[in-house]
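help with this.
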Amino acid sequence: MSEVVISSGSFRFVARFETAAAPRTCEAFMQLLPFTNRLVHVRWSGEAVWVPLGDLALGLPAENATSYPSPGQVIVYPGGISETEILISYGATRFASKAGQLAGNHCLTIVSGAERLRALGEAALWHGAQPLVIDRA
C-alpha cells in the first residue's frame, strides 16, 4: 500500500507514503489504519491542523524529521518532549509545542486535493474540531 485517503467532512485528500525516507514511521502509521479521530487547529505551530495522541508509544526514532513541514506534508511526532501527535501542514508551519520547537517524521505527502487544505485549516480554526478518517486508498 502506497497511498491513503484522508477525509474530513466534505474534504478528501489522497496522500502517498514516504516509505524510502521514513520506513519505520510509515509501517507504524499503516498499523493504525483505519484511523478515526478529530483534527484541531495547532496552537503554536502556525498554519496546520493536528491530532493529539497523548502518551501513545510508537517507539520510533527520528526519520525524515522536520520542524518546517511544507503544505501537504503529514508528520508524526512520536513523543518525548511533548505528546505523540500527527500534524498536517496547510501553510507556513514551524512545528512546536509549549516546550519549544520540535521535529516530526515526515511520512505522508498529500498528492491530490492539496488546494483545499487551507479551507480545512480555516474550518478547524473558526469552527472547532473537525472529523478525521485516514484509511487505505
Q: What stands out?
A: The longest helix spans residues 117-127. The longest strand covers residues 85-93. Residues 41 and 49 are 4 Å apart (CA to CA). The radius of gyration is 13 Å.
